[in-house]
Amino acid sequence: MSMLAPLRLLREPWNASKGNQSNATAGAGSAWCQGLNIPNELFLALGLVSLVENLLVVAAVLRNRNLHLPMYYFICCLAISDMLVSISNLAETLFVLLMERGVLVIRASVVHHMDNVIDMLICSSVLSSLSFLGVIAVDRYITIFYALRYHSIMTLQRAMVTMATVWLASTVSSTVFITYCRNNAILLCLISFFLFVLVLMLVLYIHMFALARHHLRSISSQQKQPTLHCSSSLKGAVTLTILLGVFFVCWGPFFFHLILIVTCPTNPFCTCFFSYFNLFLVLIICNSVVDPFIYAFQSQELRRTLREVVLCSW
Q1: What's in the GO CC field (predicted)?
Q2: pTM exceeding the 0.90 threshold for the entire prediction
């Protein structure tokens, strides 16, 4: 798959001489270092599925006034971010397919401008998606630990300011990234941001799970039903594992790729890892497919509204 400007630069390191790169490639010539040939049709299919799913989430939140709450607004923003990931992926894939088959003939200057627009969309959507994953974790933490004060802490005005800040920061950051994408300092900022979101989610969700487990233990001891405590704890552990596991599996390889670009651009092992760049992009798109099931479809109210949206569309 043909990569757009910054993503093409991220596929392989630029901070190594051509001689060193060729030597590293020659030293990493084993079969498993040849990467995966992922067809454009797979990118197209995943993008369409993600687009439809997240569009339904947005439609359900907008349709039901009972869902006009900060928590659902954050979920809606996450769905919009994932939609933008899908749209940028679909736009890139369609242009690549049409240009490869000679259906679409565009001047190089026009292609360059289209690259910049889609690049900015990709970068801003990725950054906003990560940001809203962190915002949702903080919102859920406040819901559990400050339940009585939640509505005074997370007011609609503060939620709107938070959402506007995330979108503005993501747009500005993506512009800076496109302009200075060859700078290691920019990559280090991206890596640091990912690690911050990862640690934030780990700390908050594990703390929430510990509190829920403590409450279940207290309830089961009072009602003398240890099996209830065990089954609920197991269910909570599975949910926590899925939530954090999906985040790490889908985002981890891409950011590990960035770490290797900064730390070992000419190492044979790193060169092998670079060859799987398209797979890392597929995992990010898969995260956009899975997010609605983890964050949105767990709500009974949202599922009910979703059924109404689907039935009305028919």
Answers
A1: plasma membrane
A2: no
